[in-house]
Amino acid sequence: MSTPHDFDVIVVGAGPAGGMAAGTAAAMGLRTALIEEHPEIGAPAHCSGKLQLHAFREFHLPQHLILNTLQAGAFYAPDGTVARVRRAVPDSHVVDRAVFDRWLAHQAQERGAEVLLQTRLRAAERVNGTVRVLGERNGKPFAATAALIIDAEGARPVLPRTLGFQLRRRLILGLQYQMVDVDLDEPDCPEIYLGTESAPGFFAWLMPIGDRRARVGVCVDPHLAGRAPLHYLDSLLRGHHVVSRRLRRARIERKLAGSIPVLASRRSTGREGMLLVGDAAGHVKATSGGGIYFSLIAARLAAEAAASYVGGDRDALARYDRRWRERFGRELRATAMARLALNRMTDADLNAIVATIAADGRLRSTIERLGDTAFQSRLLAPFITQALRPAHLATLAGPVLKILRYGLRALWDDGISAEENVSDEVNP
């Protein structure tokens, strides 16, 4: 039967969310376009590439994507105190994001999706029961119509605003170097560096990716940081006693930068003609900035909703919004709670937390047993319970009160207050 539009679904953005959405939609028989603004999928890369084992199991991802496997973690307080934890089993893999993105796009293409590169979209509009995207492809005007758009543009999406979405989120700005000849004590142990000197409003990191290579980076909240990310990264590389020692013979292979949306409002991610997935929807844990696994879940749910919507089910878009919230909405709320509290903590608070974890084997055992970087809420209540033990109450009362005072509102606030909200027009 003929249809009045070029495609059933147009997926915008060929990152993990877009590639998964396009592949799932095409496999369900939808006429699918995957549109990417860059000439090459996977470039430029933006993130550290850490992806939980949950994703490999749930989505049957191939082993050739893996660069390294992570089983431990080291957390450095501002005063240099370090707390180390090690799980009994691995938690995550580090993947080559360029290879991963290209693999997903290839899977989508194999299933029948049309991949359009060098296509920059400027706007979307509703026309006679369809949606039309407008932009340029290879420097020439481009337009296409579909029953539905799945927007996976990333942290700074353009099209949703043109269809009436109210995007409210807080952007943090990140910069990292991929380096070689790094001196690593434990190749399966990423290191996190906390404090206002290292990374105001977030943290800095050293992520081992195998073969004496690592990604060393920093994210900062521009409303809490007095300088650009480059200042904090350079200071980390030159001035941090651990990082400078690890990098004394290292050299830079690549530089990567990007924005991450945290503390997104809980407004609907589906409206007539469009669904939002991944960073465009704020599917990011506010504590770590990680979001690939949740983006893959949402992308698959969005494609399933698209199939129903194209088939005439107008409740499918609202159902998508409910389904992803049922899968991981609790995690986004819990990590937002933790982030609001962390942003209020002083260096003294962070020193106390790390020192307590380092000194208390029972608390470390709880973290190692329950800690899961995908589902961080599982650890929150046990951690607070342990922190309120008489032995720790004197040192941890302040941080716990901040969690209760500033964090718990994330469980019921429907938006971001003026104090927390920043426009997503900030430049890195």
CATH topology of the largest domain: FAD/NAD(P)-binding domain
Q: Given this structure, which CATH class of the largest domain is correct?
A: Alpha Beta
Note poorly predicted spans.
414-428
Number of strands: 18
3D architecture notes:
The chain has 428 residues and is an alpha/beta fold. The chain folds into 3 domains: 7-48 and 97-169 and 265-327, 3-Layer(bba) Sandwich (FAD/NAD(P)-binding domain); 74-96 and 171-262, D-Amino Acid Oxidase, subunit A, domain 2 (D-Amino Acid Oxidase, Chain A, domain 2, 2-Layer Sandwich), CATH 3.30.9; 339-411, no CATH class. It has 12 helices and 18 strands. The strands form 3 sheets. Strands 1, 2, 8, 9, 10, 11, 17 and 18 form an 8-stranded mixed sheet that branches. Strand 10 and strand 11 form a beta hairpin. Helix 1 packs parallel to helix 3 (97-110) and helix 1 packs parallel to helix 7. It is globular and about 70 Å long. The model is unreliable at 414-428 (pLDDT under 50). One of its GO terms (molecular function) is oxidoreductase activity, acting on the CH-CH group of donors, NAD or NADP as acceptor. Residues 7-323 form the FAD-binding domain. InterPro entries: FAD-bd (IPR002938), FAD/NAD-bd_sf (IPR036188), Geranylgeranyl_Rdtase_fam (IPR011777), Geranylgeranyl_reductase (IPR050407).
